[in-house]
Write a structure and sequence with these properties.
The chain is built from three helices and 13 strands. The protein has about 300 residues and is mainly beta. The longest helix has 13 residues.
């Protein structure tokens, strides 16, 4: 099951399909396979039918199949350890290029303490994702939305057990799609069904450039927007300013960087000319939220 720490009252939790509270079934003694003895194999009798005393003079069963050539199967990969937070709300999951197959989160932070402060679980949240839920060959997806005030961003690390390399937000190989479908805090954000509908639109590049990113965009960007990569997790702040919008987020490596969507790359040139991590004054949804980030399978350490 996906394990996570408990949260204080400054955070609202969403209940999403197959995500956060999964009961793991455990086998009992009656379910265990029988213990096989050499006599059972020699006699060629099924373990379920074998008597207590098996004659030794019965014909042996011989496996005449030729040996199978080729390398041994790879060892199973470890679970994924995640520490993540957002200003203000997030979820994440894994899937293929066409859709997410699972969604963990729907967490909405309603205070600065819930976003940044130690210990982990008070601010950023830790998850352990079983390897079966994060298979080799899957895309990593992060879904975010904000309260549309002051600052906005997401920062995280994903490290697979037994493997040294981690995936950090701010990797320039991430791509982002701005859906133009806003969600308020308290709504619990989009469902997995809505997310997958928007992934299909992102793949088809069918969104309106005036209200969406019109498909996936990278840090290079288009007229409809670009991936925004901000400061790393090393600098505290007195007040939000371009280049230093966020304090340090507890429990996340210094190499991780804040990430968001730049809705106007021609005029917002972080950090010298404004910041996409600071919410603009106009009402409505000028930042084209909610956002979907993803990292292709070929860039996830294996």
């Amino acid at each position: 099951m996906v394990r996570r720490t408990e949260r204080h009252a400054g955070r609202r939790r969403g209940v999403t399909a197959g995500a956060l509270l999964v009961l793991a079934a455990t086998g009992c003694a009656a379910d265990r396979p029988p213990v096989l003895s050499p006599d059972t194999f020699d006699a060629g009798i099924s373990p379920a039918d074998a008597p207590v005393d098996v004659p030794r003079d019965l014909p042996r069963v011989v496996d005449a199949r030729p040996p199978v050539d080729g390398p041994p199967p790879p060892p199973p990969r470890g679970d994924v350890h995640v520490v993540i937070t957002a200003d203000n709300a997030y979820g994440f999951g894994y899937g293929g290029s066409a859709s997410m197959m699972n969604y963990f989160g729907g967490v909405e932070n309603t205070s600065a303490a819930a976003i940044f402060e130690c210990p982990v679980g008070n601010g950023p949240e830790r998850y352990v994702v079983p390897s079966a839920e994060a298979p080799t060959g899957a895309f990593l997806y992060i879904v975010t939305w904000s309260d549309m005030a002051v600052t906005q961003g997401v920062i995280a690390q994903f490290r697979r057990e037994g493997e040294g390399a981690a995936v950090y937000t701010g990797d320039p190989r991430f791509e982002v799609c701005a859906t133009g479908v806003p969600f308020d805090l308290g709504s619990r954000g989009p469902s997995l069904e809505v997310i997958n509908e928007q992934i299909a639109r992102c793949n088809a590049r069918s969104g309106d450039p005036a209200t969406t990113s019109a498909g996936w965009v990278t840090a290079v960007g288009t007229d409809a927007g670009a991936l925004a990569i901000g400061e790393d997790n090393t600098t505290d702040r007195a007040a939000p300013a371009p280049g230093n919008e966020f304090p340090v987020a507890c429990g996340i490596d210094p190499q991780a960087r804040w990430m968001w969507f730049n809705w106007s790359p021609a005029t917002l040139r972080w950090p010298t000319d404004g910041s996409p991590f600071l919410y603009p004054a106009p009402s409505g949804n000028p930042t084209k939220q909610f956002l979907i980030f993803r990292l292709g399978t070929e860039y996830i350490p294996s």
